[in-house]
Amino acid sequence: MSLVPNIAGDLAFSPRRIRAMVLRYLFLLKGSWPRIFELAYWPIMQMVLWGFFTQFLLTNSSFIAQAGGVLIAGVLLWDVLFRSNIGVAVSFLEEMWSRNLGQLFASPLRPYEWAVSLITIGFVRVVLGIGPAALLAIPLYHYSIFDMGLPLVAFFANLLVFGAAVGIAVCGLVLRYGLGAESLAWVAVFAFAPISGVYYPIATLPGWLQPIALALPSSHVFEGMRAVMIEGVFRWDYFVDACLLNLVYLGLGLGFFLHIFRIARRRGLLLQVGE
Prior knowledge:
Largest sheet: none
Number of helices: 12
Number of strands: 0
Strand content: under 5%
Radius of gyration: 23 Å
Shape: globular
């Protein structure tokens, strides 16, 4: 038998090899519900979000004329929520990607200390990410979100906390289901976008959906933002509701993460990071 490799045969087009690779990716997709979920998630989310926004504009043609900067403010504040979530999740994922969880908890580090450190670095990432964008909006659009003054601090803080609560809960899901669920770090927070009233009031939503929306801290923040920008009034009721709801969500997020961590440690999942 010849030991010389059959180069021509290896370079020939092989439908069989293509079929094998396609099957590999199909099996990978089939075995990961987050991947299947993500395929339909973004088209549905875009349709719902911009559908509600279009519906609002059709019945409020003077909205943009009354407060031209409200959309820019909505975009910037939404990015605070998103980046707070992703800042927590990415710091967590970096430990999983480097397969460092086993070494990390061979030290005296406690799970709740790790959770607090993830939330803290998430806050730092938000400041570093949002600051340049907010400053750039001043020369580009002649709009400064800093003109809000102290209400901006209230909105910023509440969105930071809510984003961190979602992020730490997502960390728990990834810890439980492995890196096959890492896409949840990016997609989970966007589930709240259509019902947070980022670009339109909560009253735009169907009646049955409004109570669900008002159960989120983010909806009270964005309603409060529009009250400041359009009516010139800081609504304390929105602020207090957002703070109280954030306490609930942060407690639930931390509790869920610590519960999953105990399960992962008991099952040895900290040393078996994978798909």
